[in-house]
Fold:
Amino acid sequence: QVQLVESGGGSVQTGGSLRLSCAASRIAISDVCVAWFRQAPGKERENVARISSGGTTFYLESVKGRFTASKDNAENTLYLQMDSLQPEDSAQYYCAADARRYCPGVRVTEYRYWGQGTQVTVSS
Structure:
């Protein structure tokens, strides 16, 4: 079965950086849409970034210019470089994938495969 395993979360101060990784197995990320979501306590899970099979990337407005999503097809790994982190970025971060080549959208229900999540905490 498909597995997505996140790593790289942690605690940083405001303005710091973190790089999340998501290693995929039994699915070729070169062929599908992959995405990053986050969920803070008491809030709905929201799409942070998504990358189509062709590499077109979309971002949540509030992270544009600070976060960079990328993928290494040879390593079958998805990344999220997060710079200028703010306390409001604190959340559990999840990688997700769908079987379609194009990205279906921002809704949680549109993504079939999920990782277990990694915690990001930004202190002021």
